[in-house]
């Protein structure tokens, strides 16, 4: 079951529901948008930048907001940036993005779509998936400049924070065109699908405003923009950042166990906010869980970790991650209930084959048994399933001085790593 079965608070306007859950930073015309939404269903879109093979947590706030809007009867259009990714969005970047080839962009899109489907219900007829390469890749540059470029003021563009920041390091002409292309996306979706609203993170404000103005100038119509806060943790750390980098949804990059543990270990002050934004529990339940004090907040963190992992990785994976965490941290912080052994750090720096590693524990009596376990898909390291008997485990996999191995569903073993 996917994660878009949402408990809604009755009677409130959908914008008030978004505001109450933390999905609001700026709106181009809140009164006008409220009236449009009250009058019936509207189409809205969110753009996804496929410059990597996986989404990370930083991408998800607009998608969660889209799910809430969809649940209220509005039509989501998920626009894959197959065309704009060929340039790269300068928003929030201090340096120019590395250009990637077109084939890689297409492959990234194929990998990302199933991740989006964890949040957006594409089985409902009104949900649409689009790719701006369909109209951008065939643009005639001269015609584009004449028809679209004439509506943009360079002086106005340079006042937006995105371009002001990049002017310090240097802004390429290639990137300077990005706002025109994103604005054109909004115009095309307005023409093709009657799309009236673009949503996104607040770093997209300048691009969204430009699109609203382009529709007004070209079509004489009113469109709207809505942005959400860029999230940070209460301890000042960037949201979704781990020791290995961003918290990706692809389990091959960020294991499900590591993903679960990230949410389990967020600061106490962030629990309520993250429940409101990254789960579909009712606002009342989020408030109740988030207001827990003392040791009770740990139960709320476990609920947060389970709910987010269930939505983004599935219920079975969430249960496995929770069981692994409970086994490792049984009796609070007492890990004595989990069998363990010590392996020197030097062994991991040299690399230990997955077969050798499991055969050195009581999970397997021999290398042949360990080999069968891996081939049958029953071996996991830190929550990540090991599918190849050729896999080598290095020191980079060691977390807080240890590794957690699992055989099957419920048998765990802890490797303590010493100097």
Provide structural commentary.
This protein has 3 domains: 14-228, HUPs (Rossmann fold, 3-Layer(aba) Sandwich), CATH 3.40.50; 232-328, Tyrosyl-Transfer RNA Synthetase; 335-419, Structural Genomics Hypothetical 15.5 Kd Protein In mrcA-pckA Intergenic Region, Chain A (Roll). A 6-stranded mixed beta sheet has the order 1-6-5-2-3-4, sandwiched between helices. Strands 9-15-14-11-12 form a 5-stranded mixed beta sheet. A two-stranded antiparallel sheet has the order 7-8. The chain has 419 residues and is of the alpha/beta class. Helix 11 (205-219) links the parallel strand 5 (195-201) and strand 6. It has helices at 14-20, 30-39, 60-71, 102-116, 133-136, 141-147, 154-157, 161-169, 173-176, 178-193, 205-219, 256-264, 271-278, 283-290, 296-313, 315-328, 345-350, 354-359, 367-375; strands spanning 26-27, 43-48, 75-80, 128-131, 195-201, 224-228, 241-242, 245-246, 340-344, 352-353, 379-381, 384-385, 392-393, 402-407, 411-418.
Blueprint of the fold:
Layout (H helix, E strand, L loop, with lengths): L13 H7 L5 E2 L2 H10 L3 E6 L11 H12 L3 E6 L21 H15 L11 E4 L1 H4 L4 H7 L6 H4 L3 H9 L3 H4 L1 H16 L1 E7 L3 H15 L4 E5 L12 E2 L2 E2 L9 H9 L6 H8 L4 H8 L5 H18 L1 H14 L11 E5 H6 L1 E2 H6 L7 H9 L3 E3 L2 E2 L6 E2 L8 E6 L3 E8 L1
Parallel strand pairs: 2-3, 2-5, 3-4, 5-6, 9-15
Antiparallel strand pairs: 1-6, 7-8, 10-13, 11-12, 11-14, 14-15
Helix pairs in contact: 10-11, 12-15, 12-16, 13-14, 13-15, 15-16
CATH architecture of the largest domain: 3-Layer(aba) Sandwich
CATH superfamily of the largest domain: HUPs
How confident overall, as mean pLDDT? 87
Helix content: 40-55%
């Amino acid at each position: 079951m996917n994660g878009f079965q949402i408990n809604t608070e009755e009677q409130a306007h959908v914008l008030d529901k978004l505001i109450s859950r933390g999905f609001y930073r700026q709106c181009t015309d809140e009164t006008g948008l409220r009236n449009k939404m009250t009058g019936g269903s509207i189409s809205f879109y969110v753009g996804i930048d496929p410059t990597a093979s996986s989404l990370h947590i930083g991408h998800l706030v607009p998608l969660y907001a889209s799910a809430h809007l969809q649940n209220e009867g509005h039509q989501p259009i998920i626009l894959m940036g197959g065309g704009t990714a060929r340039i790269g969005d300068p928003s929030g970047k201090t340096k120019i993005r590395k250009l990637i080839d077109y084939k890689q962009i297409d492959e990234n899109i194929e990998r990302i779509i199933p991740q989006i489907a964890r949040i957006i219900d594409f089985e409902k007829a009104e949900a649409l998936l689009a790719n701006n390469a369909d109209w951008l890749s065939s643009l005639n540059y001269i015609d584009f400049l004449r028809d679209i470029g004439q509506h943009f003021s360079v002086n106005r563009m340079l006042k937006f924070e995105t371009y002001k920041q990049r002017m310090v390091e240097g802004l390429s002409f290639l990137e300077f065109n990005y706002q025109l292309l994103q604005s054109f996306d909004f115009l095309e979706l307005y023409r093709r699908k009657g799309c009236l609203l673009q949503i996104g993170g607040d770093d997209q404000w300048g691009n969204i405003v430009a699109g609203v103005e382009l529709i007004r100038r070209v079509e004489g119509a009113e469109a709207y923009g809505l942005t959400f806060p860029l999230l940070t943790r209460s301890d000042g750390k960037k949201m979704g950042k781990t020791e290995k980098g961003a918290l990706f949804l692809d389990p091959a990059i960020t294991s499900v166990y590591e993903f679960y543990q990230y949410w389990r270990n967020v600061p106490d002050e962030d629990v309520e906010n993250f429940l409101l934004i990254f789960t579909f529990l009712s606002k009342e339940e989020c408030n109740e869980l988030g207001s827990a004090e003392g040791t009770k907040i740990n139960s709320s963190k476990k609920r947060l970790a389970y709910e987010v992992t269930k939505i983004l990785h599935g219920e079975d994976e969430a249960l496995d991650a929770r069981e692994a965490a409970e086994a490792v941290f049984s009796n609070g912080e007492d890990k004595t209930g989990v069998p363990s052994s010590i392996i020197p750090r030097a062994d991991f720096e040299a690399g230990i084959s997955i077969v050798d590693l499991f055969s050195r524990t009581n999970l397997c009596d021999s290398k042949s048994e360990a080999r069968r376990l891996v081939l049958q898909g029953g071996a996991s390291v830190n929550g990540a399933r090991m599918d190849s008997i050729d896999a080598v485990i290095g020191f980079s996999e060691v977390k807080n001085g240890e590794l957690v191995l699992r055989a099957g569903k419920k048998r765990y073993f802890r490797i303590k790593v010493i100097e």
